[in-house]
Recover the amino acids of this structure.
């Protein structure tokens, strides 16, 4: 295994490839993740939910219909059924061999090559949490693979974070996985900072329309990183980098790499 790339080693604004290199490859597939690595993204972002037999798989929608040739909810299909589906042809026939990967498959492929932002989809939240809840499975997998320093967990469902932190306390581990609240609806800047404090966040991931220069300054003053999503426009990338974002989540990682290199030259 190559040496693990840790979140702390990053020097430039992070290029986070949204669902892999989504603009040019079918999202959340191994092809999209490999492409993100090849254009020198710093991190991939991916989405996980549970199959009927409770295996974490990498897919954005709760239903199979948009990105595969299957139909119905992911949670109503077994892994074996899901693995037979074509997850590439909807994007382009040349990707017909792509399938929905398990989280473990992706992690094994990328280990030591790139960091990863695992977004746990809110649909997978279970209250009360069973022993094999998605967040527990994610923690166990990351620890089993020794990848804690290259992983950032995000979610719109902020209740996952306390559970992750509790799991780490129960394991008597000193530090839990880094977590990042996702935020889509407008909230006051002060509330955003308070949210990060309450959730013991590493970073804050707002919709890009919510980002202001003062929000960036307030978050950074309190020690939080900020990674807005999803920015594909070059001018907006440039503006946010000049304002001081820690990184950008983009469907166009290659474009973002170029913008950053140009600004740094
Ligand atoms: O992590 C940022 C972004 O992926 C959140 O929204 O819907 O693209 O998963 P969505
Ligand atoms: Ca996502």
């Amino acid at each position: 295994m190559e040496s693990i790339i840790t979140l702390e080693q990053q020097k430039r604004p992070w290029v986070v490839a949204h669902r892999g290199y989504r603009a040019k490859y079918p999202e959340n597939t191994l092809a999209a993740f490999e492409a993100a690595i090849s254009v020198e993204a710093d991190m991939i972002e991916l989405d996980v939910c549970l199959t009927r037999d409770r295996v974490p798989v990498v897919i954005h929608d709760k239903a199979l219909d948009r990105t595969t040739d299957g139909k119905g909810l992911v949670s109503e299909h077994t892994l074996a059924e899901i693995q037979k589906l074509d997850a590439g042809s909807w994007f382009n026939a040349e990707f017909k061999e792509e399938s929905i990967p398990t989280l473990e498959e992706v992690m094994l492929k990328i280990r030591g090559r790139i960091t990863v932002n695992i977004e746990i989809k809110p649909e997978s939240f279970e209250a009360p949490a069973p022993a094999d809840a998605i967040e527990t499975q994610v923690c166990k997998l990351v620890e089993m693979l020794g990848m804690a320093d290259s992983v950032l967990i995000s979610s719109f469902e902020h209740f996952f974070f306390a559970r992750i932190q509790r799991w780490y306390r129960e394991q008597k581990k000193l530090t839990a996985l880094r977590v990042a609240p996702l935020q889509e609806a407008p909230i006051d800047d002060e509330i955003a900072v308070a949210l990060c404090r309450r959730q013991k966040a590493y970073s804050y991931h707002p919709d890009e329309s919510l980002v202001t220069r003062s929000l960036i300054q307030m978050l950074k003053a309190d020690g939080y990183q900020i990674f807005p999503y999803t920015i594909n426009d070059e001018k907006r990338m440039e503006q946010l980098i000049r304002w001081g974002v820690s990184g950008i989540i983009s469907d166009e990682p290659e474009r973002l790499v170029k913008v950053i290199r140009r600004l740094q030259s």
